[in-house]
Amino acid sequence: MKIDLRLFVTLSGYLPENNECFEIHGDTTVEKLVRDLGIPDGLVKLIFINGKREDRTYILKQGDRVGLFPPVGGG
Description:
Layout: E1 2-7, E2 22-23, H1 30-36, E3 46-49, E4 52-53, E5 65-69
Parallel strand pairs: 1-5
Antiparallel strand pairs: 1-2, 3-4, 3-5
C-alpha cells in the first residue's frame, strides 16, 4: 500500500528519492517505518498522520499523509 511521506528539517536527509507515493507493507506501524528509513532512535519527536498527532504505535493505512518532525530547538 502507498502513503504520502514527509520528513521535515533535519530528517529530510532520510527521505527516499521517490517519496510522493512511498510503498509499505500492511500492518506497518510508524515505529517500523522509522526503523526501515534508518532514522536513529530519538530523532523523531512529533508524528502527524492526516493532520492529527499520533504516536509510534499507529498502524499506517493506504493513502495516509505522514509527517515526521525532529525535536524543536532554539532559544
